[in-house]
């Protein structure tokens, strides 16, 4: 045990003494935060896209313009509601009512801002300034031919901006609307969807008018919408109704499965490169007179596990602290409920068990592979098939989100190499204890078998100089 | 004879290839013992079997009075042929780490590392990382790492390769000092001069098999007699005597004279050689019987089994 500890200690110190370790330790949370928030920030930073609407009939142009304004208003409503829900959930109802009371988008946002300024002034600094994705401008020319130079960038608007796109609404011989969308961005067609929705509504109203139904009644019909609720029939479900609180554990489980997968792959790679470094440094012969191959293997596994534990302690303390604050301060909001789900003890336990089992299984495989390779390049050629196996659980996340207990997910969770990840994803779906125990036993058995096999391969690789090159006829036997 | 190591009928096979075949030898306690042979003879394989890194395909090894075990290996120091240390460790840390793996307590290991570095004039590199040291310097550190746990039996595999002549002499002194301290030292080499200067007994291996085992003087006795000759001017003594069946090689030239070395084999002695020189009209300025070298003994013993290029003088 003493020698295993010495090998583990050296391994641990070698990693934590490297500057790269500290860079990873400190930058990973920043990078993860950037990955989460960058798309939101980038979307906010993008200026509004300028659109012009030309139509044969003024009513059509007005209908389309109104549709864009309503879209912008809905988006602003969603954004300020999300902000209030996250920062001051107790103001959510009042803020929504204040927003809905104002017909003008800007005034509605200002009304909510005034409430936040009065009731939760500490949150005001982060109050969003929703930017509409589309701004409708006065067409600089009458027809599409006249607009072309503005659309292809040859000319700019009087404000100096470039016209992003133009919608031309015409009527055919039968009076049916025809929408043409002109833009140099061929990948993007959302304006046609918004305009199409507006004109479909206009067509419905025209049809209803022909049936003698007044526009007000048509508007009332359009507003009709059923109340929808989803329920969980299981006896354990508290009130039965499924809300964000009930869905939050699934989101948390998927996020944790992704973290688990990334960490297992990263630390297994550390083991692989570590053993290759020792082989290329020619230090194994020296070690083998003092330490057995199995002791080296176990020492390395233990050392890198300690490195992982250090990372988890730091990230866990940081992330756990933030999540605990979010869960307690914003318990009614979406963010607070997701944060609380991350801190669910059963999920943390599933993550810990999944990490230990996954690390030992993949670590043993990577160590064995490393012992057969003479260089990182040689190892990389081997990693292709291993990476495919490793990526399988991630490919199953999509189906798992749709139904965590689907036959394919259930069957795949019995494959020991996938179990750590899929058990975690399935945990919130209410697994039977017998299934958890059986899969746990399967993982333990697989870990034992893999460690035993890895020790054999490791011994052959480091002692008998068995190598991939040797297996494929390029063996250079020592004297 | 009290033996530190007894090997009997050692065999190591790799598939169809036999790297070591039926090698037996015994290393007396407190002696300096050499394992000699050309590159690829099976020296390293033999040593790796002795230190338990390789399992023999057949044969028996008794190390320090018992079978190879973790306990006996803790009393053995080993410098492998393929040398290497953790590159990010300091010289002091590397020596202490390997001593600790052999069971030396941490405090003692660091104290001995400091002492060994000081004794060998290496205090300056004490805290330098291995990756910053020259190859020769790193090799010296590894030699110290092999002896830091004060083993009873020290095994060095090709310890002189990669060292300059000054450091080779220093290493010879280290080996002698270890033997004087009562430790047994076994080393392999393909350079006969080191063995000739240091060893009491030697094992000659060629093509994986034992060619000779005994004292250096016993090995030298098996070598043919030699004579050193000098001729004036450009006279080609080899050209004159080789056709007559004498093994004559040019050793060097000095002040216009050529110095030759002739092996006296096949029942022909100094008298016949001298007579052949006279008959050939050789302008001799020196004719002197000399002591054969270990290299000559080695070539005489296994010369027909090895390629000339694999034996270094």
What's the count of strands of chain A? 4
- Which second-level CATH architecture of the largest domain in chain B applies? 3-Layer(aba) Sandwich
Distance between the termini of chain B: 32 Å
Poorly predicted runs of 5 or more residues of chain B: 307-313
Q: Helical stretch count of chain B?
A: 11
Spatial ordering of strands, largest sheet of chain B = 5-6-7-3-8-9
- What's the oligomerization state? heterodimer
Structural class of chain A: mainly alpha
Element order, helices and strands of chain A? HHEHHHEHEEHHHHHHHHHHHHH
Largest binding interface between chains? A-B, 23 and 37 residues
Q: Can I get a quick summary?
A:
The complex is a heterodimer of chains A (479) and B (313). With 479 residues, chain A is mainly α. Chain A has helices at residues 2-16, 19-45, 58-87, 92-101, 105-119, 144-151, 190-210, 215-223, 244-280, 284-288, 293-329, 334-342, 345-372, 376-395, 397-402, 407-412, 419-426, 433-462, 468-471; strands spanning 49-55, 134-137, 165-171, 177-183.
Task: Please give a structural write-up.
- Chain A has 19 helices and four strands.
- Chain A is mostly helical and 479 residues long.
- Chain A folds into two domains: 2-37 and 244-471, no CATH class; 47-222, no CATH class.
- Chain A has a four-stranded mixed β-sheet with strand order 2-1-3-4, sandwiched between helices.
- In chain A, a hairpin with a 5-residue loop joins strand 3 (165-171) and strand 4 (177-183).
- The longest helix of chain A is centred in the middle third of the chain and has 37 residues, at 244-280.
- Mean pLDDT of chain A is 86; it is low at 474-479.
- Chain B is an alpha/beta fold and 313 residues long.
- Chain B folds into two domains: 3-220, 3-Layer(aba) Sandwich (Rossmann fold); 224-291, ACT domain (Alpha-Beta Plaits, 2-Layer Sandwich).
- In chain B, helix 6 (165-180) links the parallel strand 6 and strand 7.
- In chain B, helix 3 runs parallel beside helix 5 (135-147).
- Mean pLDDT of chain B is 87; it is low at 307-313.
- The interface between A and B is medium-sized, with 23 and 37 residues.
